[in-house]
Amino acid sequence: MNHHKFAQTPPMGWNSWDCYGATVREEEVRGNAEYMAEHMKQYGWEYVVVDIQWSEPGATSSVYRPFVPLKMDEYSRLIPAENRFPSAKGGNGFKPLADFVHSLGLKFGIHIMRGIPRQAVHQNTKLLGTDKRARDIAKPNSICPWNTDMYGVDMNKEGAQDYYNSLFQLYAEWEVDFVKVDDIADSKLYSAHTEEIKAIRKAIDHCGRDMVLSLSPGPAPLEHASLFEENANMWRMTDDYWDHWHLLHDMFTRCYKWSKNVGLGHWPDADMLPLGHIGIRSVDGGGADRLSRFTKDEQVTMMTLWSIFRSPLMFGGELRDNDEWTLELITNEEVLKVHRESYGARQVYREDDRIVWCSKDDEGNTYVALFNASEEQAEVSVTWEELQLESTKLARDLWKKQQLGEVEGKISYTLEPHASMLLQLS
Amino acid sequence: MNHHKFAQTPPMGWNSWDCYGATVREEEVRGNAEYMAEHMKQYGWEYVVVDIQWSEPGATSSVYRPFVPLKMDEYSRLIPAENRFPSAKGGNGFKPLADFVHSLGLKFGIHIMRGIPRQAVHQNTKLLGTDKRARDIAKPNSICPWNTDMYGVDMNKEGAQDYYNSLFQLYAEWEVDFVKVDDIADSKLYSAHTEEIKAIRKAIDHCGRDMVLSLSPGPAPLEHASLFEENANMWRMTDDYWDHWHLLHDMFTRCYKWSKNVGLGHWPDADMLPLGHIGIRSVDGGGADRLSRFTKDEQVTMMTLWSIFRSPLMFGGELRDNDEWTLELITNEEVLKVHRESYGARQVYREDDRIVWCSKDDEGNTYVALFNASEEQAEVSVTWEELQLESTKLARDLWKKQQLGEVEGKISYTLEPHASMLLQLS
Amino acid sequence: MNHHKFAQTPPMGWNSWDCYGATVREEEVRGNAEYMAEHMKQYGWEYVVVDIQWSEPGATSSVYRPFVPLKMDEYSRLIPAENRFPSAKGGNGFKPLADFVHSLGLKFGIHIMRGIPRQAVHQNTKLLGTDKRARDIAKPNSICPWNTDMYGVDMNKEGAQDYYNSLFQLYAEWEVDFVKVDDIADSKLYSAHTEEIKAIRKAIDHCGRDMVLSLSPGPAPLEHASLFEENANMWRMTDDYWDHWHLLHDMFTRCYKWSKNVGLGHWPDADMLPLGHIGIRSVDGGGADRLSRFTKDEQVTMMTLWSIFRSPLMFGGELRDNDEWTLELITNEEVLKVHRESYGARQVYREDDRIVWCSKDDEGNTYVALFNASEEQAEVSVTWEELQLESTKLARDLWKKQQLGEVEGKISYTLEPHASMLLQLS
Amino acid sequence: MNHHKFAQTPPMGWNSWDCYGATVREEEVRGNAEYMAEHMKQYGWEYVVVDIQWSEPGATSSVYRPFVPLKMDEYSRLIPAENRFPSAKGGNGFKPLADFVHSLGLKFGIHIMRGIPRQAVHQNTKLLGTDKRARDIAKPNSICPWNTDMYGVDMNKEGAQDYYNSLFQLYAEWEVDFVKVDDIADSKLYSAHTEEIKAIRKAIDHCGRDMVLSLSPGPAPLEHASLFEENANMWRMTDDYWDHWHLLHDMFTRCYKWSKNVGLGHWPDADMLPLGHIGIRSVDGGGADRLSRFTKDEQVTMMTLWSIFRSPLMFGGELRDNDEWTLELITNEEVLKVHRESYGARQVYREDDRIVWCSKDDEGNTYVALFNASEEQAEVSVTWEELQLESTKLARDLWKKQQLGEVEGKISYTLEPHASMLLQLS
Predict the structure, then answer these.
(1) Is this complex scored with an ipTM above 0.90?
(2) What is the least distance, in Å, from the CA of A347 to any CA of chain D?
């Protein structure tokens, strides 16, 4: 499985959805990329991802406009709306924007929907590399339940694989590094679209360019865990995640269930980080223009869980509006080392919403995350036996970057509700 | 519930689907109507129903052509394809054909799909009686899973009820007597579309013309039995029914479950009778141009069950090709009297695929149907206690129109596999 | 179906569960019977029912004691615990208590659990009327999920029907008039126990005494509606019902779904009325010794719904502690006339928790129940068209027993949250 | 997770169920152990496991006798029936038999049912290490749906963990090496019993002796994959597996789904090998005394799949009746090396029942299993790209122990229906 050779660590980047919904514009992408290059790149952040509906010239929010015309080339392939992405003019597509991102030492990603545009099917437009046309390969009764852009593709039809190949050939020409495919991992109406997942895997392998494949939305069914690993680099464990405690609380169980499927090149995905300034042109998740509704304790808890579990980290807010505290939260090199280098993460126990996870690294360190997911202050402890440790260790608080001295046999801390600690034992 | 005032007996008629799929032409409708008037009307047969896609000029089979243009008026309402229904020319719609059917002393029916044409939504065409347009009322992610003609209608939207009202106003102008609405009773993807069922009820009540409302496809969920009774005259108990024994065998259970919901004006529907010459331009049900694959015993069993249960009777074959035996099967006045006048039908017992049903009439007769639904010859009996009878009775074989003499305490007959008897005890 | 000849109106009575859990004693039964005879009999109340575990000498609450010995005769049949039912001494069983109840002009009922006592199976005791023994007919892996008293009976086994026959023969000797069979209509673990329902029907028919058959607990699956009608006189539409608004609120939907199955001798059951003094020796339903937590408006709403729907009415509180208001609530002869004589009840509409039901009687009256099931004051209206009325009517408020004058075309009243009205239009 | 330190390769052994049902006797266990020591030990076979109901003195078949008394010690713990296991006399339990097995250089295993004996609960007997008694910890409505021996244990009750500890303390005293716990991984009635799985893990850890923990029956829900890995060494992927092709055919999908959860110390289990002489005193699986109904091709296919997937291998037949062919089938050292040493097994593809799996080892070998699971002869191929190979390889047929020469780019073989090949590429 060739795709496990890239994304050897969980991808880190920025995605436009949480702040700009379906409406992000080129200057905003460039601005966030510049910010990332300047402030975050050195910590491992690298992907800049344009989320949904970049072909829709009139997108104004996270609410889709049904049946509006999308920008499309002669081969039924969606292309960027030039009013929103001026550099795409002249048939350049996303190549100039990708070039810019690459010039900053970063990588460029896009979002696509599973399938073929409904407008291509209604007009029965041409396909590249086959004399079949859009209507020949469409599955007209396979739709996305929340957006009118596409029909599914019937992989039993001649020309179907050619269509998907033509898409990724175009993205390779644009020099795309990351593709988030939506309406595919859990389609709500029809479970996972396994045949189209496999077709997209083949199309990427065929295009000759390494691209991280990310599957949405979730919850991806655990039943298909093998298929996700064998075809994708990351896949969503949840439906859309927002800045609500109950969604964060729920993620502990999801991480527990998927923990056996975390590995080099394949990363169950806890979804984007709704941090900083979000909802600027989005009302998804029941919010509007705001700073993240998560408390600081909750933000630390989220980053701790995502890091020890090794979920991809995709920042959702407008980076340029980050305050000092938020920037520090996502650039703590000691925490990010856990995210990048530790492995074997497992939930040690969960009792009454006191939760402990641990992992280790190749330098002999053990990492311990203590969580108080309850509504009361609580003492959270873990023993050496539970951690499979034997001798005295030096403890370090990775969030505070402070030595805590020698410990042995057991550690125990009193945590506020929704709070957590991330410790290194060496 | 006004609609219980009509269809006081289970509707009887002819439907074009089993023989002509989506392709029936005006002369075929007229020819079958003439046959019905001449040979069947006197026995109670009266509805002549044009099934699906009469707006599709190029329909050639039971297989739908995705996304082809349908004939539509300026108000987003489908109208007959004139190449197939010449009398519809000049904006006459089905009025001339309905007039012809009425001139024969019969009634005229049409099939429609739930919703609004996809093409109307894509073109955002006008609606009658509201300044909203097609896109304003469509539910673009509510589709039929087996046909691309329509989107659902969102009954929460202003103009939605106006649209349905405008449809039935048109059908009233055409003098339609019977409407079979499809993709609504069991939508496969989304269960029953209860809001659109209620909207159609209102639209019929609003149009001022009595029209029998028939809901398809099935199996209609028993969970919504009250809703079906309160809004429709008939609704399907099964998915599409064809000339396979296992489907007929299965109908005994369906009839049993729905037997408490049979009543004046509301008739659970066992679907059309695939008898005689069927599959002429249809490959649905896995067959082609053929005579019904049911054996004679099975045909009698079907007619016996449909009659005592009081399912609507809609003949599916090309009537003009009926042989003598088939015509007699559907014009046995003694059997049809049971269908028309008996009530209180109940399954007396079912043991090892020996099944007995009974009903009664206002003249003091008891009707008994004995079924051998097994694969072996079997003796099927029933006692006076089970039938709640007390004295000696005169028995009559209604299929053979023969007196069987006096009986008391119990009757018992040996039946071939798949065979049945229908008896009158008076 | 012989059993539809009795219980021609929905049964009305008293049941010991809501006040005494599993612990009721003979003197309490007698006391409640005397109260009923004196204060309620003239209004139609007649059944006095001893609920669960009358064989358990040490029952102290609604919480069952697992595996305690139960009183049993030599034929594996449970008999009353004499310390709780002194008149049962000497092998008299419930005959003396039934005699007493009969002497008051009332009828006597008992509760039983589906199946055969576990203790009989473990001891492999004898059965009456067969040389098979308890272990031969038990289904040892068919249990009740909330009580350890019984195993199911395997109706495929020789002796199984004999066992059930022997039970009802005993109850006939005791002159029981009403049997509530538990763990059978919705068994939680295994859906409805349809074979044992049919066996009990046969056993009652066989015993030669009319006994009302009531099936518990619910929700009985609508899927088996035909079977319930054909075998029982009443069956529960819900799980245990208590004095919580959300359970009452939920009952509107349940009544709507089952409204087509209400008929002479067969009554979907909304469960006992948790009114007056309840929870005396019961903690079921999350309460303790208390007066009903329902407000007066809610009590009237409950009685209105139960009456127009025609649910059985089984009072749950200690009757002797009724206050004036409660006694009047259950003895309003005008409301009870609706319960006893009206028919054809249907939900006219439900919009935003404004709900209207109507029914009629043989004297030409129409009954209308207006409900405000919302949390805000609301105006609840209904038109003559919706009621299928045509001319001017005289309206009467049945709860207030007041004439409201002439009305035509529409009636409309402002109701407090959770409040209702019951009107007669004549 | 300490238990991942043992069972570092998938356990291999013999189990008495397939040949002796619930009835195996000591001399048969000894005889099979001697055979294993003499003929199989050198190939890695080591566990000798006594399956279900060794406490039942009168067991005669695979059909359980309900409610018969089981041998039990004073602390509610089942002990061997001495008539069947004479060395257990004098309170020795399985210690003498374990000693014997150990003396042969093999390991000893037993089967137990989840829970506490029903008879202990009915008699309310003592427990070891707590003053609570059987009835205090039982979950009386948690049963096994196919056997009457036990009730579940309520892990919320004081004394519950003590009870499980006392069981494994006893097994440690007996020097048991392997425990197969039944009615726990998929309980049919209640899904997986996760709390009792965790309690058993704790009890084994507490007892101080390494014991392989095997969970039955299946299919274990994939949803709980993390929990199974964290608590057990092996768990069943299927319900009981027998010598029917459709069950073997079905195993390919099961192995595919679970392939990501195979690892050191934790082995998804494809169930016992119904090979050789089986059904001697068992009618489970629809058979009787017989030689395996699998054809030779099917037997090779089964061994190939089990080996490359790395399922535990537990032989089900009476070993002493093995013919030469069967013994060779299970002692092919080249195939067993794949089972013991290869890793990373994955399904390369599956198309029309042509299936290819591959794995590798630390010596640089690639193993390829080609399966024709269809009903027709078929050519099964795989490319170097699919195998992620690059250069020319030497191919060897491991079943035939033959060099096949140099291969490059692709291999392809024509296989009979149900046949397979296992190749080493080096």
Answers:
(1) no
(2) 9
